[in-house]
Amino acid sequence: MKIIQAKAAGFCMGVRRAMDTVLEEARRRRKPVMTYGPLIHNPQVIEVLDGKGIRVLGRGRSREPEGTVVIRAHGATPAEKEELIRCGYEVVDATCPHVIHIQRLLTRHVEQGDSVLIIGDPGHAEVEGLLGFARGRGFAVNTEAEVAALPELERVCVVSQTTQSQERFDRLLGLIQKRWPECVVYRTICDSTNRRQEETVEIARAVDAMIVVGGKNSANTVRLAQLAAETGTLTFHVENSSQLDFPRLRGVKTIGLTAGASTPNWMIVDLAERLEEFSRRESSAPKWVLFDLVEFFLNSHLYIAFGVVCAVYGCSSLLGLPFRPLAAAVAALYVFGLSSLDVRPDGEYRTGAKGYFIDPPRWRFYQQWGPALTLLGGTSLIAALILSAFISLPALCLTFLVESLAALLRLSPAPGRFIPYVRHRRLIDLPGGKDVFTGTAWAVLLTLLPSVAAASPFGPFSPPVWTGLSIQRFVAYAVTFLFVFSLVFIRSVVTDFRDIQGDQIIGRETIPVVLGKDYTKTLLAVLTGVLLLAMIIVTAGDALTPLGYFMIFPLLYTWGYLYIYHRRLMKPGMAFEALIGGKFILIGILALLQRACA
Ligand code: SF4
What is the DSSP string of 443-476? Predict the structure, then answer.
């Protein structure tokens, strides 16, 4: 079964912006935060926001004027905004810029004495808001009969609801132009809506069944489902994966998947993954068994542990040290153990439904394998300590240091009763805390452990590695340390990109959440560039072995997947996970190649 997922599925710019605004306000303020009407038409998201204390302030309801009210992407009428301010609320306007543009057009035309026709659903919040800007000179029309029933008007200006269907807009506009040939027309259907609708129709025509995910009360999602059904393709409109009638998909060869502008990413990822799983079960047994094994290898962190072994081999070669399998085993056990014990620093995958909002497939995996991985994780960390003692005393100290640091960062610094007043309960919860710590721990183990192991191959009492360290050698260690740190840091931040919607919902402050996606992408690209230069200069100065030149490829590889992510050329999932972890295996392969060529 082939699954075609729409590129334009999920939150549009306006909804994402409104959601970011609400979550940012909730993060910053101690006072209640409310939205003026439901933020989006998606019951599951509203439920999650409610759980975070973000309530919906009903229009016209009696109000307790305390706190911040966020105007959602649809906007509100000027009178409603004034009323909220008069009542004493702090008002934050998250109206979508496209809607603001229409509001300004209407204000201008009304001031010139024109009448305004809005082609849209009367009663929809955006249309109601626009009518408010028309100051009594506006009419909402959605059917031929409503156009026919319009009174005689002199000068007319026509706009549309941003999520109106193009076909209906053209049809009603034709009727309006017959009555008012001189009318001024603004085509204000949002690009995002247009693209989403066009793509939905295009995919629906090419597949055997179409699935539209999103709230049943979301006008734009309902419209997508209508458009798909009108192509004659079997169409399912579901709010989440549990509503999908999978048996009806038996025998279907291609499936299309799209989502409304108010559908969060995790719901799309969840549905796509359930479809993949269904498709696998429908295929031959050897194929799905193989696929399940690959999935297990990736999700259980065995893949990344293998990458660590490869990277230890590469770093040893880069520093001109012999490869010590014991050092590689300690580093791999540490990474595997810590990742298995607590895949997220705060254990969201394990402690309940929170993990579902970050990465539903992995959350399910942990629900299934959690106890076994906890046992294996704990055993691995103990095994790493024991094995490091066989290398040398400094190796044991290093391993003990990184393991103690991992535990320390996860401890809450404040006693229980003060916890509500402490914003970041643990150091790892600081923005970037997890990324910086993970990068540092890997860099310590991958750079220093091979050195310690090389200096003392036979026992615990050999001299420490830093004996007789020259400046050139120091530079080599520093650049290798920075190299490993940066690659791990970038991988960690890229997974934060993928999880950003879920992280915002559950209140995790990652670097992309705090800095924003664009700044973070620039930061990662610059970091990679600086590293590339440093690697070339230090290798040219003979501080590193010639393998340093080969290490340009993992850095170019990193730029490559940052670009793939930026251009959305690959959807998040197993393949992307394999891609971003692949650079560590590449380091090992390059080291092998260089040794073979030398
Ligand atoms: Fe803004 Fe378009 Fe989204 Fe409406 S559909 S909120 S106009 S981006």
Answer: HIIIIIHHHHHHH-SS-TTSPPTTTT--HHHHHH
Spatial separation of the C-alpha atoms in residues 503 and 444, rounded to whole Å:
28
Name the average pLDDT for the chain: 85
Could you read off the pLDDT of 444-488 as tens digits, one per residue?
A: 999 988 888 776 544 444 444 445 567 888 888 999 999 999 999
Task: Report the pLDDT value the prediction gives residue 161, as an integer from 0 to 100.
Answer: 94
| Nearby residues of 343 by Cβ (< 8 Å), 6 or more positions away | 301, 349, 350, 362, 366
Closest listed residue to residue 202, CA positions, set 272, 254, 261, 247: 254
Among the listed residues 126, 239, 295, 577, the single catalytic one is 126
Q: Is 126 designated active site?
A: yes
Q: Which atom of ligand 1 is nearest to the CA of 74?
A: 6
Q: Is 428 helix (H, G, I), strand (E, B) or coil?
A: helix
Could you give the count of Cα atoms lying within 13 Å of 432 in the half-sphere of its Cβ? Answer: 13
How many C-beta neighbours within 10 Å does residue 407 have? 10
Give the whole-angstrom CA distance, residue 140 versus residue 119: 6
Q: How far is the CA of 96 from the centre of ligand 1 (A)?
A: 6
More confident residue, 305 or 215: 305
Closest CA to 446 of 310, 298, 545, 590: 310
Quote the pTM value: 0.69
The C-alpha atoms of residue 400 and residue 475 are separated, in whole angstroms, by 25
Cα 102 to ligand 1 centroid, rounded to whole Å: 12
pLDDT value at 545 more than 60: yes
CA dist., res. 132 & res. 204, Å (int): 37
98, 124, 130, 187: which to mutate for ligand 1, most atoms within 8 A of CB? 98
Q: Give the pLDDT of residue 165.
A: 84
Q: Count the helix, strand and coil residues of the chain and give each as a percent rounded to the nearest 5.
A: 60, 10, 30
Better pLDDT: 282 or 152:
152
Protein residue with least CA distance to atom 2, ligand 1: 190
